[in-house]
UniProtKB/TrEMBL annotation:
InterPro entries: PRC_barrel-like_sf (IPR011033). The keyword Chloroplast does not apply. Keywords: Signal. It comes from the Bacteria. The keyword rRNA-binding does not apply. This is PRC-barrel domain containing protein. It comes from Larsenimonas rhizosphaerae. Residues 135-171 are annotated as: Disordered. Residues 156-171 have a biased composition (Polar residues). Residues 1-26 form the signal peptide.
């Protein structure tokens, strides 16, 4: 009888875990806030190493297949040259000053790089764009195939647990 309880408990935990993952992700996303891409465009950009001097402004926002922000493109001009650099997510933060209306909300982007590191970031050009699209497509295909495989494995494991529970009850 303890085998039956163990199999049923394992199935319940596995099933609950599968169904709670999307809810946990949604709860996490809700705590990160909501930002307007339109308002973020042209926002001033500062380097963490020089937070008082504007290094440029947001020129573009790059999205992945899942529509999440993958990078921003900043146009520099105040640090000696006029170039567009790709800054990957994780290397910048966005701060807002909230007001009572969307139009009064101001955005400030801080890049976690020095001027030298910024100058070593990829330049936003057609060649970069074509290469990035190929790499993103390849990564998406690998991820998609891995996710499908993980779902099949989870489904098979759940089915096996249920079969084992049923066999234990029959004995």
């Amino acid at each position: 009888m303890s085998h039956i309880k163990s199999a049923i408990a394992g199935t319940a935990l596995l099933t609950a875990g599968v169904f709670m993952i999307p809810q946990a992700m949604a709860a996490q996303a809700a705590t990160q806030g909501l930002y307007s891409a339109d308002e973020l465009m042209d926002a001033p950009v500062y380097l963490q190493s020089d937070p008082k001097n504007e290094a440029g402004e947001v020129e573009n926002i790059l999205l992945g297949d899942d529509m999440s922000v993958q990078a921003i493109v900043i146009e520099t001009g105040d640090i000696g040259h006029d170039k567009n650099f790709v800054i990957e997510k994780g290397k910048f933060t966005v701060e807002t000053t909230q007001d009572s209306s969307l139009e009064d909300t101001e955005y400030k982007v801080t890049v976690d790089l020095s001027e030298e590191q910024l100058n070593n970031q990829p330049e936003y050009t057609n060649d970069w764009w074509q290469d990035a699209k190929k790499q993103a497509s390849t990564a998406w295909e690998k991820t998609k195939n891995g996710a499908e495989s993980a779902w099949k494995n989870t489904r098979e494991a759940t089915s096996n647990l249920l079969d084992n529970a049923s066999n234990a009850v029959d004995k």
